Amino acid sequence: MPAIELTDSVGHRCSEVTLTCGYMGQQKTNMTPNIDQNGNGNKPNAREALEAMTPIEQCSLIPHTNMANTLRTPRVRTVLNRLFAAAAHDHGTPRWRKPSLSWETATTQERADASESTYMPISPEGGDLLYILVRAKRPNTVIEFGTSYGISTIYLAAAVADNGAGRVVSTELSEAKVLAARANLEEARLADRVTILLGDAMTTLNDIPGPIDLVLLDGWKDLCLPVLRSLESRLTVGALIVADDINLPSLSAYLEYLRHPANGYISVAFPVVDGMEISCWTAGGASGEEGAL
């Protein structure tokens, strides 16, 4: 830990202060009063003041070096602010290329084509949560189902960049969105952390090797469960799975599966906009018996 210089109430300097911060105890301080030119060496009261501090208060005395936080850089904030402002004008109505199509009858590709101008973004709070999870988990491989315009991808990539290791593999059906997302990542200077695959996730993710450490499911909701099931054999034990928009009825089957103890997950809903489900893959049921609690 660094040495910190303190002064007492009359200006005597105390050097060689060593602190150890934490809740489980602290290292004793070693304070040596400096003798002035007249030989006066009054014991300063800084030591008593320091020892009276809580560990948290002592930590506040230690100078911090600049820690990496790419999310707070002007270039990333500029891109995110622009994308969120554009997403605020989402109309939410698909623009079908064939008048006879509907959401129920359209293929996934036709849905993607009809929604290519719709952002469908994660919330800013949800993005911050993703950043926190990636920083804490320090995954080597992050999978994202549903790139869209790359808003959530930027949060994931920023965390991977700040960790100093790892990569994000994202997949998207809309060619227009893939091109836009790549441009947004380039502008944010995070493109080197991300690979965006064009096509159906049930195909594009087949060749991604494990172990997979974190998965974000934010594509078509009726496909979240099939995509997750296709990845399960490559999930590392302790992998985190995050699903967005869990308040939508189309995610009911997904939630039922994740919350059933026999399927190998510990899962909890997190209260951000539209809801997020955060799950941990344990690679087996709680006791090996279906339905065990």
Q: How would you characterize this protein structure?
A:
With 293 residues, the protein is of the alpha/beta class. 31% of the residues lie in helices and 19% in strands. The protein has a 7-stranded mixed sheet, with helices on both faces. It has a 3-stranded antiparallel sheet with strand order 1-2-3, with no helix packed on it. A hairpin with a 5-residue loop joins strand 9 and strand 10. Helix 5 packs parallel to helix 6. The longest helix has 14 residues. The N terminus and C terminus are likely disordered.
Strand order of the largest sheet: 6-5-4-7-8-10-9
Tell me the domain tally. 2
Number of strands: 10
Q: What name does CATH use for the topology of the largest domain?
A: Rossmann fold
Could you write a compact summary of the structure shown?
The protein has 293 residues and is an alpha/beta fold. The chain is built from ten helices and ten strands.
